[in-house]
């Protein structure tokens, strides 16, 4: 999580400085694309602040109102970030783009735009490299897209996607400004803003999908369930693991409920001893599992959960 914060702080600093310079450059050169890029960087700055807020709130200790803790605060604020990217970043850029396509304006001297865009690519690219290294370390040998789907820490892939979208957007704007200036096509400035907006909407849809899944109570993978089942069914007092229910409370915390059929000739004391043994075994093998709830059930009981 410390490395995740490092990537967030680096992105925060880069986006804040870049947003200011983009707005100044857009005002001087009368470029809608640069203004849209400024909005994009400003939204990204706010997003990093919200992610840091979510990380901070997720560390609060459990209390009577939230006995499982506040880990899902991170998922909530990550979802808010994806909405902001869609509404502010994407929406404003698309509006600016359509407006300047319908009513193109002559651009001023683009020199300052090229300077700002070039520096922005360097800064955003550096932030992207930091975020990618952090995510690469976490995913190991897992394919990139599979790692995004399986990741339970949205702060890592949110920053990665934000930075990637920022770099792609900067390249789009630079190309369109150059072509517009070279061929005297001022509407290409609006096209650049529109393309950046559509890119942000696309990215926000992906991030919203993943954040929503975690916020709604995403559980452990089917492979992990099979491993837990095999582990528990080795116990001499267990007949069958009937159901496994789980949810991620935070990237590092899982709540697990096991519905288990025990041998019918075991008395209450033996079952309680077996339950304690199973809890200890699961926690030892799976460090992310903080809470293990075990419900004994008859084998012939029809329970569908």
TrEMBL record:
<feature type="domain" description="Cation efflux protein transmembrane">
    <location>
        <begin position="10"/>
        <end position="216"/>
    </location>
</feature>
<dbReference type="InterPro" id="IPR040177">
    <property type="entry name" value="SLC30A9"/>
</dbReference>
<feature type="transmembrane region" description="Helical">
    <location>
        <begin position="187"/>
        <end position="208"/>
    </location>
</feature>
<feature type="transmembrane region" description="Helical">
    <location>
        <begin position="115"/>
        <end position="136"/>
    </location>
</feature>
<protein>
    <submittedName>
        <fullName>Cation diffusion facilitator family transporter</fullName>
    </submittedName>
</protein>
<feature type="transmembrane region" description="Helical">
    <location>
        <begin position="7"/>
        <end position="25"/>
    </location>
</feature>
<dbReference type="GO" id="GO:0008324">
    <property type="term" value="F:monoatomic cation transmembrane transporter activity"/>
</dbReference>
<dbReference type="Pfam" id="PF01545">
    <property type="entry name" value="Cation_efflux"/>
</dbReference>
<dbReference type="InterPro" id="IPR027469">
    <property type="entry name" value="Cation_efflux_TMD_sf"/>
</dbReference>
<keyword id="KW-1133">Transmembrane helix</keyword>
<feature type="transmembrane region" description="Helical">
    <location>
        <begin position="157"/>
        <end position="181"/>
    </location>
</feature>
<keyword id="KW-0472">Membrane</keyword>
<dbReference type="GO" id="GO:0016020">
    <property type="term" value="C:membrane"/>
</dbReference>
<keyword id="KW-0812">Transmembrane</keyword>
<dbReference type="GO" id="GO:0006829">
    <property type="term" value="P:zinc ion transport"/>
</dbReference>
<keyword id="KW-0813">Transport</keyword>
<dbReference type="InterPro" id="IPR002524">
    <property type="entry name" value="Cation_efflux"/>
</dbReference>
<feature type="transmembrane region" description="Helical">
    <location>
        <begin position="74"/>
        <end position="95"/>
    </location>
</feature>
<dbReference type="InterPro" id="IPR058533">
    <property type="entry name" value="Cation_efflux_TM"/>
</dbReference>
